[in-house]
Automatic annotation (TrEMBL):
Its cofactor is Mn(2+). CDD domains: APP-like. It holds the Pfam family Peptidase_M24. Residues 144-344 form the Peptidase M24 domain. It comes from Paenibacillus campinasensis. PROSITE patterns: PROLINE_PEPTIDASE. Keywords: Hydrolase, Manganese, Metal-binding. Belongs to the peptidase M24B family. This is Peptidase M24 family protein. One of its GO terms (molecular function) is aminopeptidase activity.
Length: 362
């Protein structure tokens, strides 16, 4: 974390910024070690060109911040205080050029900054933070591995509860209970279990539908562990699936394999997406693959990079992202197979190890 702070401090000097204000709680954690959900309260990390960093936290988090943060200068505010007045006291006079996370900053907070600070120009710190976050450290990879191990155990236990007559929402409840029981902080997104015709909806909402013999059942789930996310999708059959469902499954599995094999340092994300998409198109299901191949994974379950056909950025060693091709055919069903992968110095490591051959339950 000290290295991350130093890098951001160096950027302040090279970019000609006067200050950087970080308000995304995940970025505060990434840079200081202090994890918090401040809700509507103000949380901010202020870095300046020639001063030590200042962490501004709600007073009720003061003890936790002092215990966890590598930043020594911590300023607290009560619920009745105006935190922007505190910032004005920390930055007397003109704030000059202030870098913020433009994608995260709300209009309301921007107006508060405008009112209380004399800012000559706003710059975006987002691209710098994105570039820092894309290369996972060995310690970050280890935490992601743990999150993957947890979610795979959750999925294994969930499959043991899967049978005809069980509803989608019942399985969701079992999975999310198991996550907490095994030590996860919670789901990294809304757990998805879809069955039968509902599997043709890439982002369907689990409901009261009960699994019927011959159904495909799609599980898409992830957990947070020590602040990092995992994400996995597997599709199984309960009873004998139709011949077309089997063909769709085999096509998606081949696309998943092709996408993984295309991953290496320097490969464009567009080429990785295309490798998987070609398999599906050649099988005649091109229009049924309606989303990108994958997304970055780390402190957010969806972060940079976006693995799609228009992204000419290239894979960097240390990047972690998903490979998740899918085919969705109304009236038949859908299949998605998702793995989490790490770009290594020579190629790719698949972090998810859960079996991918078609599993038929019952």
């Amino acid at each position: 974390m000290k290295q991350r702070l130093d890098k951001l401090q160096h950027t302040i000097n090279t970019q000609g910024w006067d200050h950087v204000l970080i308000t995304d709680p995940k970025h505060v954690y990434y840079l200081t070690g202090f994890a918090s959900n401040p809700h509507e309260r103000f949380l901010g990390l202020l870095l300046s060109a020639a001063e030590e960093p200042v962490l501004v936290v709600p007073a009720l988090d003061a003890e936790a911040a002092h215990a966890a943060s590598i930043v020594n200068h911590i300023v607290t505010h009560q619920d009745t205080d105006n935190p922007y007045e505190l910032l004005k006291g920390i930055i007397p006079g003109s704030a000059g050029v202030l870098a913020v996370e433009k994608e995260q900053l709300t209009v309301s907070r921007y107006e508060q900054l405008q009112h209380h600070l004399s800012v000559s120009r706003y710059e975006d710190a987002g691209p710098v933070l994105r570039e820092m976050r894309v290369r996972k450290s060995p310690e970050e990879v280890q935490v992601i591995r743990h999150a993957v191990q947890l979610v795979e155990e959750v999925l294994q236990r969930g499959l043991a509860q899967t049978k005809a007559g069980v509803s989608e929402i019942e399985l969701v409840a079992e999975l999310e209970y198991t996550m907490k029981k095994l030590g996860a902080e919670g789901p990294s997104f809304s757990t998805m279990v879809l069955s039968g015709p509902n599997t043709a909806l890439p982002h369907g909402v689990p409901g009261s539908r009960k699994i019927e013999p011959g159904d495909l059942v799609m599980f898409d789930l992830g957990v947070y562990a020590s602040g990092y996310a995992s994400d996995i999708t597997r599709t199984v059959a309960v009873g004998q699936p139709s011949s077309e469902a089997v063909r769709i499954y085999e096509t998606v599995l081949a696309a998943n394999t092709a996408g993984i094999q295309a991953v290496k340092p320097g490969a464009s994300y567009a080429s990785i997406d295309q490798a998987a998409r070609d398999v599906i198109a050649n099988a005649g299901y091109g229009p049924a693959f309606v989303h990108r191949l994958g997304h970055g994974l780390g402190m957010d379950v969806h972060e940079y990079p976006s693995v799609h056909g228009q992204n000419s950025d290239t894979a960097q060693t240390g990047a972690v992202f998903t490979i998740e091709p899918g085919i969705y055919v109304p009236g038949v069903g859908g299949v998605r197979i998702e793995d989490d992968v790490l770009v290594t110095g020579t190629g790719v490591e698949v972090l998810t190890t859960f079996p991918k051959e078609l599993t038929i339950i019952g």
